[in-house]
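Consider the following assembly input.
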Amino acid sequence: MQKVRIAIDAMGGDYAPLEIVKGGIEAAKTLDCKIILVGKKEQIEKIALENHSCCTDNIEILDAPDDIAMDEKNPARAVRKSPGSSIYIANKLVADGKADAVIAAGHTGAATAASLLILKRISGFERPCICTIIPTTKSRMYLIDGGSNIETSAEQMLQSALIGKLLAGLVLNKENPRIGLLNVGSEEGKGTDKYQLAYSLLQQESSLNFIGNVEGKTIIDDTCDVAVCDGFTGNIHLKALEGGLKAMSEGLKQAINNGGALAKLGGLILKNSGVFNKLRDHFHPDSYGGALLGGLNGISLISHGSSSAEAIKNACKQAKLLVEKNILEDIKNSL
Amino acid sequence: MQKVRIAIDAMGGDYAPLEIVKGGIEAAKTLDCKIILVGKKEQIEKIALENHSCCTDNIEILDAPDDIAMDEKNPARAVRKSPGSSIYIANKLVADGKADAVIAAGHTGAATAASLLILKRISGFERPCICTIIPTTKSRMYLIDGGSNIETSAEQMLQSALIGKLLAGLVLNKENPRIGLLNVGSEEGKGTDKYQLAYSLLQQESSLNFIGNVEGKTIIDDTCDVAVCDGFTGNIHLKALEGGLKAMSEGLKQAINNGGALAKLGGLILKNSGVFNKLRDHFHPDSYGGALLGGLNGISLISHGSSSAEAIKNACKQAKLLVEKNILEDIKNSL
């Protein structure tokens, strides 16, 4: 069998190209897949040479000379105007069958626009949705849409649920995944008209294990495997959750540092016991690596803007799994 | 000067009437205000006698014989049908000038409906908004609307900002409070048409220190003092934040308990150093106690369903401050 080929936009993300390239090289070394690093060739080669005895057979570097003309208000136009940019070329590799998946960190709007423009939608699927993995106290789950489509319709929420079911099964190994509608209360009838309509569509879809409305304060306890909502709501949820996780870990650090000798001793012991690393591994987004853009004719993963090498490597791992299990075929069949 | 009189619905909340009554008694003893406990008189007297040498001059118990006929889909109708219920009578005391503020824990919908029905709106104010205090890593801030009005208009978000400015100054001692619009990105032009309109209304209001769009992952770092949004979005944010805070503290507990002898020792030392109590004091909603229902002709505070005695006492403290500083007059003048 041919190795899975993953194109990575080496220029996107807060720590690009350094962390992105390092993550790609790490993936090429450990995951038995081929990595195509797309971006400013000289910069990428320099990092590759400095960090590793470049280049194994699993790594290819492809030059993308242009910067993307960023235009916040219209990322689609920005992408169209920049066919020589790394994000454009990386997506084009997938569209042309020269790569099996694309990974981009950094500007979500531009990455979504590029994949939408170049990979195109699956017929019947109006807008891509960001399928984000979030932590629960015990496990992980999917939140869809994480912010691709700020005015997701009720019908689109149903499509998100169908994709989420497949992903939760494949990536998180959940059997008969429990699907919830993220809402402002758990009772039926909660939320806007659109949410009430989404509720009834989800309820009518017999292929789904729909458990009703769910809330942010309860899904954290692993009460469902997929929560669907519109992209505005999903993005608000994700960022508030990120804020909450950060606040508590920062608060703990501060309280230890300002708590006197005893607090510092306790903190030191906990650190040495591995407790803090364990927490980080479970809750940090780098440990999942990326979110599939659902509903497109190609595997495209978006990583967090602050992605480290670890995040990129983990995104590659996820991408490889999705390609090998042929998730695209399953998604097309489910719609 | 007459003592501030606070009516408390003793029957609302997960731990009612026990915790509510205990909190009210604690407030009466320590805050130099008069507490009127409204509910099943026999039950309240029993708790009061068991817990304290009832009753000081600062406590009055008022019988409310009826249960509220709860109707999830229409809490307003449920309240109207139950004039003998504790939530109705407690609000009526304020409307009749027999109390200066009302506090209710438990069902937010019913509490909001009762205050809206009985205290009525300030002229020009279409819908009440829940003015929630949330933690940041260093301080506290207001999030408005916390979930009273799931389809808040852009104009109503402006009104929320005007109330938030007053509250952040009075309750949190913030000078020239920084006002942000909670959105899915920090750049101008983000969000739905409604959010773009709210942005321009907030920008045009010269009395406000408007700092633009803000996000859940950044406001946690104390970057603004008031974030406004529609009630659906605010409720999603609050519950995701609550989930995030809980996940990290539960995760820490689990990692300590399952981390072996060294982890347990570190955890024990940290506990004895007071670090965990300090974290709880800063992040737990009981330490703020309640959220003002803004835009009504009376001071009405809603407390979390899981309110403890501490939460009720702290809500009384907040209510007393709002009454003494005559916030209602300021709100009316600001609109």
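Chain B touches chain A through 64 residues (CB under 8 Å). Ask yourself how this observation constrains the way the partners meet.
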